């Protein structure tokens, strides 16, 4: 469902403020580059801007009414003067840009105003990008271009120089939690997902992922083993850990989940219970927190971060985890 001006203003206040000023003063740029991480609302803001331009009865002169025929058609993706271009396969090809240019050489179907939006603009082939460049160099005063990217460094400098760049910030943890719970994620799981990813779509996918649910149990089990017997922890690595965290990305996520346990224990010791993310395990963690020290937890968190660094330096995953378990147990106050 399309998001309203108010909803997107909560997500990206500075972006919406800038667009509001440009609309009120009638000073919109002819080309924008919306850049930022996935899930930050770039495409939604692009569609909102389209509605602001085409709305038949905007509120306060710039807020789309969401009810007129133009707003409804843009929401349904079938307004004749609003064109959205996405990669054809892995890339955006020259023929797609040429077809767009051809479309724009015609008079607007219902008005002179036209808008086009290029999703994943960083995936344009060199020929497509050069073709677009000619288009951007001869702007029509009635045409608005919106390029959208998560990889601004992949955009040609010549294209960057012809666009007004607007950066979309990652969502705040509070905003993420409220949006996740609004989408049916349990209040106990939402805080953990926010620590794992700042991407709303990815967080929603993880909330339904059996692999992710099982990963949490395996990580907690490893911590529990560490508090009892390091030999058992080694057996757990062979029996469960390596069976579950097979790929490098999976192991990286496992280490992230592991690190969150130590953070939670530290928060408990500091009396900052509102920051805990393993909410379903709160009682057990409170018991574990009594059996260790803040200094020890800090050392262990440092060891996990070092393991993550070694993982990205392509160290053997099995050796890495075995070394980490021994390091975490060294001089532990549990013994």
From TrEMBL:
An annotated GO BP: DNA-templated DNA replication
InterPro entries linked: DNA_pol_HolB (IPR004622), DNA_pol_III_delta_C (IPR015199), DNA_Rep/Repair_Clamp_Loader (IPR050238), P-loop_NTPase (IPR027417)
GO MF, one example: DNA binding
Residues of the DNA polymerase III delta subunit C-terminal domain: 247-329
Reactions accelerated catalytically: DNA(n) + a 2'-deoxyribonucleoside 5'-triphosphate = DNA(n+1) + diphosphate
GO cellular component: DNA polymerase III complex
Keyword Transferase in record: yes
EC id: 2.7.7.7
Keywords for the protein's UniProt record, in alphabetical order: DNA replication, DNA-directed DNA polymerase, Nucleotidyltransferase, Transferase
Name the UniProt record assigns to this protein: DNA polymerase III subunit delta'
Species annotation: Bacillus methanolicus (strain MGA3 / ATCC 53907)
């Amino acid at each position: 469902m399309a998001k309203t001006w108010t909803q997107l203003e909560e997500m990206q206040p500075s972006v919406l403020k800038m667009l509001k000023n440009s609309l009120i003063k009638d000073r919109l740029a002819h080309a924008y580059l919306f850049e930022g991480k996935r899930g930050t609302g770039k495409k939604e803001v692009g569609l909102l801007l389209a509605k602001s331009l085409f709305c038949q009865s905007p509120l306060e002169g710039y807020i789309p009414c969401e009810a007129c025929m133009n707003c409804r058609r843009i929401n349904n993706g079938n307004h004749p003067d609003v064109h959205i271009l996405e990669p054809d396969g892995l890339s955006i090809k020259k023929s797609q840009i040429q077809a767009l240019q051809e479309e724009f050489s015609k008079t607007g179907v219902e008005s002179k105003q036209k808008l086009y939006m290029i999703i994943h603009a960083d995936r344009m082939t060199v020929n497509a990008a050069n073709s677009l460049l000619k288009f951007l160099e001869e702007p029509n005063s009635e045409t608005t271009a919106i390029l959208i990217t998560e990889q601004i460094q992949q955009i040609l400098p010549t294209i960057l120089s012809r666009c007004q760049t607007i950066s979309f910030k990652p969502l705040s943890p509070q905003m993420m939690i409220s949006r996740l719970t609004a989408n049916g994620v349990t209040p106990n799981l939402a805080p953990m997902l926010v620590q794992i990813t700042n991407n709303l779509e990815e967080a929603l996918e993880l909330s339904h992922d059996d692999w992710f649910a099982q990963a949490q149990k395996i990580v907690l089990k490893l911590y529990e083993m560490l508090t009892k017997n390091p030999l058992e922890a080694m057996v757990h690595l062979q029996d469960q850990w390596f069976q579950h965290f097979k790929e490098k990305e999976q192991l990286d996520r496992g280490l992230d989940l592991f690190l969150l346990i130590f953070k939670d224990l530290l928060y408990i010791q500091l009396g900052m219970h509102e920051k805990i993310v393993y909410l379903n395990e709160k009682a057990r963690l409170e018991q574990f927190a009594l059996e260790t020290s803040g200094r020890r937890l800090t050392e262990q968190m440092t060891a996990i971060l070092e393991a993550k660094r070694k993982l990205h330096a392509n160290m053997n995953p099995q050796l890495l985890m075995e070394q980490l378990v021994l390091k975490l147990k060294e001089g532990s106050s549990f013994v």
